[in-house]
Amino acid sequence: MKNIRTIKVAFAVLFLAVLVGHFWTMSRWSEARGVYDDICYLRQAHLFQRFGLAGGFDTDLSRDDDGHLKAKLREIGYADWADSTAAPCHNRMPATGKVVIQYPPGVGLVLALFPPGHQVVPMYMLATIVVFGFALFALSLARSTSTALMAGTFGCLAIYLMVNPAKASYSMAPTVVVCTLAGCLTARWLASMPSQSRIELLVPIGFLLGLTVDFRLADLFLASGYGLFLLVAFLIERTTSRFLQGALFGIALLFGMTPTIVSYAVNAGSPFASTYGNNPDVRPLDFSFTVVRDYLADPLQTLLIVVGIASSVYLLRQANGVRRVAQLGIANLAINLAFFFTYPIATPYYTIPIALLTLWSLLFAVLFQETAEGAPDAAPRAKAR
To answer: Which end of the chain is flanked by fewer CB atoms within 10 Å, N or C?
Structure first.
């Protein structure tokens, strides 16, 4: 037990060191780094702060009568900052005639919680604190040397990711936080024995996964493995309980997506019409898998994907609870990777959410099971007494 305590203290100190280092790095970030997506996220936040929660959903460029967008574009040296028809990441909607932001409103909603001019840094700091807290929680659950090392190593990696590659897109900070919490709840739900299965946990899990769609539209695939898992479970048993699980999850998922649905209705004229419009970046899937090599060239994403797949396959041999989490993880990874590996664009962060959701789920599943069974390292000492 003393050895485990030493490992935990060492990792806790390391967590804190990474956190402090990140805070120092983040404190020097600029909100005018020249990325067009950033400008649109900040404009959405400005609309919420200026017009309130209800009025902020309307992102029509005609509402930029205070010159906020032009000022932001001029600040980063955008050549056509004065030409509203050339605004980046905006599309004209045929049904409404509006020129609107193409992204879902979730990131803007989060940024709107912080004061103008000082929104990005506090958002990332708060998100990093949340991940730091979950890393400590996972470390505290470890009851053996092996799980302490596993929780500590992954905790360090999870905190590190909050700068690289999470900084690549403002959508990553809130997405990572939600994936962390959803992973913990997923493990609590599926790692329970069948007689102790907590159907009520599906509501917050579904809601959280719905929220991720408000940050990035492609995050809808994060819920795909859950849907498949629940569908198969229902087809096998066909009971009222199984049906209620799927229904509750689906309703909660839609409820979490409410901001995006409202945004589409206001800006595109229909809750089912995307604001991406005819964006040339959104093209049919490329089934030649040419983008796979771009992901393989990214060591960080490759590492997370390989570890996620290997861990899921390995844990299929474990007891029922952990095996169910592993089965869900494999299904979710397969669907998400099938999409991203055939999507014509690769980025340093596209597969990070599914990898983190899977790894957090697996880690907490192992830790919850170990806690329920007792501490392996403590058993010999207990017998000696």
So the answer is: C
Separation between Cα atoms, residue 335 and residue 195, nearest integer Å: 29
Q: What is the pLDDT of residue 285?
A: 58
Q: What is the mean pLDDT of the chain?
A: 90
- What number is the average pLDDT over the span 376-380? 42
Can you tell me the distance from the alpha carbon of 242 to that of 185, in angstroms, rounded to the nearest whole number? 18
Name beta bridge partners: 100: 91
User: pLDDT of 261-293, one tens digit each?
Assistant: 999 999 999 999 999 865 544 455 565 677 888
Predicted pLDDT of residue 200: 85
- Identify any residues that bridge with 91 across adjacent strands, giving them in sequence order: 100
pLDDT at 280 (0 to 100)? 45
